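User:
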Amino acid sequence: MTDQRDRRYVAGLLVLTVATGVVDAVSYLALDQVFTGNMTGNVLFVGFGVAGAGGVPLLNNAVALGSFAVGATLCGAFLRRRDDGVRMPRAGLLALGGGAVLVLADASLWLAAGDLPRGWVLVVTAALAVVMGGQAVAVRGARVQDLSTVVVTTTLVNLALRSPLAGGTGEGSARRAGAVLAMGTGAAVGAVVVRSWSGAAGLLVAGSLMAVGAATLAWARHREGAVAA
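Assistant: Predicted structure:
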């Protein structure tokens, strides 16, 4: 059963999941049909692009896919060298905080530039995908199952598999359903902001949510340490 300590971490992870939904709404609606957080979608889009189907841009999606892998690799190397052996290591929090700063910087530059030239669309796409790849690795330090913050497919499978209807106990259903709801909520919020204002404004929202999520995880770590002491 999820205890109070887990709930604190879950809260931070759900905020980051909302942020991912916002980021993907911005990247798809304002950066030319590309996902920077949901790599399952990007693999499909790359396949569509290779086949020349549906007008899906191959280069944008290939850049996002490669950049996500780069972000995950760099973050993994960074964390491995600085693992302090506790739940939600400081290095992971630093990576999440740095990601939030980078997204907010992208948003500020986008606001200053107005319409992004083609080359800058690719630069922003790559930067967001690097951040999302790093986030996917960094949140593993929270040690909460089914809350990767960047994908909900496995979460949906486990929600169904462990439900009473499938003969399961239903344990963890609230956080799994919360993750799905958080992703959808973020996508809806991001779409509204992009349509009503701009992609840059959407990134301001996403970066702010990422900062809140990282701060919540830092608070959870602090509280767990205080209880242990």
